Hints:
The complex is a heterodimer.
Chain A: E1 4-7, E2 10-13, E3 19-25, E4 30-38, E5 45-51, E6 57-58, E7 67-73, E8 76-81, E9 90-98, E10 105-107, E11 111-115
Parallel strand pairs in A: 2-11
Antiparallel strand pairs in A: 1-3, 3-8, 4-5, 4-9, 5-6, 7-8, 9-10, 9-11
Chain B: E1 4-6, E2 11-14, E3 19-25, E4 30-38, E5 45-51, E6 54-58, E7 61-66, E8 71-76, E9 85-93, E10 101-102, E11 106-111
Parallel strand pairs in B: 2-11
Antiparallel strand pairs in B: 1-3, 3-8, 4-5, 4-9, 6-7, 7-8, 9-10, 9-11
Amino acid sequence: xxxxxxxxxxxxxxxxxxxxxxxxxxxxxxxxxxxxxxxxxxxxxxxxxxxxxxxxxxxxxxxxxxxxxxxxxxxxxxxxxxxxxxxxxxxxxxxxxxxxxxxxxxxxxxxxxxxx
Amino acid sequence: xxxxxxxxxxxxxxxxxxxxxxxxxxxxxxxxxxxxxxxxxxxxxxxxxxxxxxxxxxxxxxxxxxxxxxxxxxxxxxxxxxxxxxxxxxxxxxxxxxxxxxxxxxxxxxxx
Lengths: 116, 112
């Protein structure tokens, strides 16, 4: 149980284009989903917290107009990187938290983004 | 100073060895402590979590928290080559778990 999927697993795009990443909880309902970014040899850094039906909360230094988050249902959250640039190239990982188990986050497999 | 410090390694051990992985943290408000395992190019997988100080054992894994020294440890007994991965510690406060603060991860290599 507690499986989280992400799609796509990797994406290469040209600078200036937008990329959408999906995060789904497959066998549980997640009122809260989290989006992280991980650069090589660095720790996971929380970008934003996404609550179903409300606006996302962004961490300091993360541009909300550049990283659009939508949490339209209890099983789906999307992250759109708008006008991507090479410095946005990273490993993006989502996690989801079960309603009944607030202390545990289940992570997706990640999406590797390369912006040329 | 980072809130959670972790030696990046790599830590190389022979199969069967006891492995000790450690983190220190600076925020005394942290109450929950977690260990995740991350294989290359995959998302983290929760191994164990501990509330406040004390020990917790699960099979070959033991998590230990010493809040007085702000030190957390993960011990792996009888290590296997399949344990080779990056181990991340994470801390959270007692207020809704809105934010996990991760260490950089320690890369572990267990050789057959």
